[in-house]
Amino acid sequence: MKIGPLWLKVQIACGDALAMGPGKADLLEAIIAEGSISGAGRALGMSYRRAWVLVDEMNRCFDPPLVETLKGGGRERGAKVTATGAAVLQAYRTMERDAAAALDGAAYALLRANLRSEPAGQG
């Protein structure tokens, strides 16, 4: 959430991996809407490979996995966000809203008042 010179980005780490962040949350929402990883990737302007790598990283970070792929033909193929995936997505979006509330606080006002618009030149 970018507002003026300061913005907040909620990221959830799993060891050295990024388990969840704004892009992965958007990807989960796109999988829900599109019913497939490839369709979600297209909707977000990313390659299938990139979308698959992000899904794989999320699935390795959460137990049970957030996305399951459906093998087979016809309407039964594609991918779906699991119940855990939907719950994690909802919790993440709640954390984003909670973090956004900090933008109304005194700490944000102090940081914004003292933050340069660009880094100062080297001395």
TrEMBL record:
Gene3D superfamilies: Winged helix-like DNA-binding domain superfamily/Winged helix DNA-binding domain
SUPFAM superfamilies per record: Winged helix' DNA-binding domain
Superkingdom, natural source: Bacteria
Annotated InterPro entries: Molybdate_resp_trans_reg, WH-like_DNA-bd_sf, WH_DNA-bd_sf
Protein name according to UniProt: Molybdenum-binding transcriptional regulator
Species of origin: Sphingomonas metalli
